[in-house]
Amino acid sequence: MSSFGDKMNEAGDQAKSAAQDMGDKAREAADKARDEVQHAGEEMKEKVGGLMGKIKEKLGGGSK
Q: What is the CA radius of gyration of the chain?
């Protein structure tokens, strides 16, 4: 039969494991969000660059 102390240690170990799992999942979610924001920023940069090129063409070629 397990003592009260053993049960408390087991509960503590389970809580620690659950906290580590939640921390890992939070880091994974943050990494995914960072990657998605970075990709969206790169896409926006490309689209704005393309738009600026079209505007320069329509206005006569840009700076010389």
A: 27
Which pLDDT score is estimated for 61? 66
51 near 57, Cβ under 8 Å? no
Distance CA 5, CA 10 (A): 9
SS3 string, 3-62, reads: CHHHHHHHHHHHHHHHHHHHHHHHHHHHHHHHHHHHHHHHHHHHHHHHHHHHHHHHHCCC
15-50 pLDDT tens trace = 999 999 999 999 999 999 999 999 999 999 999 999
pLDDT of residue 63: 55
